[in-house]
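Example (one chain per record):
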Amino acid sequence: MRFDRPLGSGARRGRIPQSPFKLIVTVPPGGAADFIARLLASKLSTALGQPVIVENKAGASGVVASDFVAKSAPDGYTLLQNSITTHGIGPHLMTKLPYDPITSFTPIAMLASLPLIMTINADLKVQTLPEFVMLAKQMPSKLAFASSGNGGAPHMAGELFTVATSIALIHAPYRGSGPAVADLIGGQVQVMFDGAPSLLPHIQSGKIRALAAASPRRNPLLPNMPTFAELGFPSVNVALWYGLMAPVGTPPDIIARLNREVNQALKSSEVLERFASQGTEALGGTPEQATSYVRQELDRWGPVVKKAGIVAN
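Predicted structure:
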């Protein structure tokens, strides 16, 4: 399966797509990754003239989805929404991957970044981060923090938080943000770090309580919520990020066409408005910039993982 002939004179250069696309997402439906993928898929379907079908292939902290794309035909029709989990933290936790995070893929563009928020179950009798730290010290290894999967940004944020505050929490990894948030609301776990798309509706409804932003600046959606840095814990600074990749060997003109369409989608008023409503920053850029971004993230998280003593479950 390949794109057809190059577009003619006066049109955007690239090949005409002739079949539906698959956009592979590493987590189940629900949560920030799924929100971004489905919004992007809608815009790309229109731009490319073919359906862009989102397929959720959860498992093994993104390894299942990444391996599927790495082994797919390099024809531009099967794409991976990569992330800080698959191409930042995860490779330092899982040393026997069935693919190489750099050489098995061709980056297309960066998509979005979401600073994380720390939330707690609303039934906990604490209102602030210092009060929660005090409670956790009174109950060592009795409180659990949920994450969307082992080795992801929410997991890393929780581990950094325990190191920074000298508390002991139990890590409870889930298969995506959706089920993790459900158990946070239900009280099966007490703490969770994640992006606003997963958490904000439940913060607004009072089902969970936001305590701090894991970002250098206050979250514009929750301007009264302090940052960890303001509260004395600057090392707790973690954001989710997402990009778009194709299997290695995908022809350069196809990568260029997809890059152009992604950047146009990220500049659209609909995408920018919906991103802003969820505390999400559009990224975009060239394939070369995406490659540099991924390499920098891999370099950044290696020492952090080692220092925090995090290992794959």
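Caption: The mean pLDDT is 91.
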